[in-house]
Amino acid sequence: MQALDQAAGGSGDIESEQRAGEASPIELRPENGTDDARCEDSATHDLLRRQMADEVSGKISEVRAASGSEEASGDTRSEPPYASTPERTDVEIRTEIESRLKADQLLDETSIFVTVSHGRVVIEGSVENHEAKQRAEALSRQAGGIIGHDSNLAVRKSQRA
Questions:
Q1: CA atoms within 13 Å, Cβ hemisphere of 107
Q2: Angle in degrees, CA 55, 60, 64, rounded to 5
Q3: pTM, rounded to two decimals
């Protein structure tokens, strides 16, 4: 359990967290840097997640461009195993997925965040229900040129009056 908690971004100190949770009936806010904080639903958090995704995508593109120019100068360049399809940039893939999500009238794409690194797609955020989660995952898998796909979408808890 401790290793799972640490892998999820927690402190790994499960016993003290459980004791703290039992002692206080108040709801605790998620700590920064944890999975719970990244999935928090608010306009501010959505904007921050979008900015972080854009920064990461930009950095990945810079690194790929730098490594591509070094590889191009060498005589030997091996073809990647997925070279049978035209290689697309991460930005192109991300743009296509975001367009697909936005075009779908049944989805609220504002709380879904797409990151692409070396052709591997990761979608994160939260959706209204299980059907929306499946729909977003299916749409993001349809993009051309992807190597792999991971989904970290969460279904929002229903808010009862």
A1: 29
A2: 150
A3: 0.48
